[in-house]
Every structure is written in structure tokens, then in C-alpha cells.
Amino acid sequence: MAINSIAMNAYRTALGQTQGAARSAESAVSQGLGKTGGAQKSGFMDALKNSVGEVNAEQLKKDQMVSSFATGENQNVHELMIQLQKAGLAMSMTSTVRSKVLDMYKELVKMPF
After folding, report:
1. Which residue of 56, 61, 82, 86 is 20 to 30 Å from 13, comparing CA positions?
2. How far apart are CA 54 and CA 102, in angstroms?
């Protein structure tokens, strides 16, 4: 029974984090589309800074969870694996976007004027 309750707690935590991330993404998309009424419009640079900051936060959270798991403070493997996947996916997407931006820059440099 203890294993079931641990799994249920991990599931509820992951579900709560997913719903929180979905709400955050929805508000970011609304801001990007300018649907927030009187909100100040942000540029590409602000969006890029925010995205890199969020990726950094995921990496820091992953590092903290790995060290707490290694020291025995937290033994929840499910949450640790979920955070590892989230951090890895965020880093992978960031490097993909960076590669695409660099490819676009190289194409712009090659264009004759």
C-alpha cells in the first residue's frame, strides 16, 4: 500500500506541475498574441530572455533534485525522472532553436545586396 500511495503522490504532483505549465504556456501565448488588453508588448529579445531563464530554472531544479536524491533527502524516483525529462527536453528544444537561428543568420549573410 505504501508503494501505491507514493506513486499516487508522484502522479498528483506531476499532474499539478503539468497543469501549472499549461496555464503558464497559455498566458505566454496570450501575451505573445497581444490578447491581454493593456499589457505591455514584449519583443523577441524579451521572449528569448524569458525562455532561456525558464530553461535555466529547469536545469537548476534538476540539479537540486539530483543532489537531494543522491544524499537521500528525497527518494521519489518518479518526480526525479519527470524533472530529468523536462530539463532534457527544454535543453534539446533550446539547442534546436539556436541552430535554426544560426542557420537563418548564415542564410542572411549569404544574400547578395
Report:
1. 56
2. 21
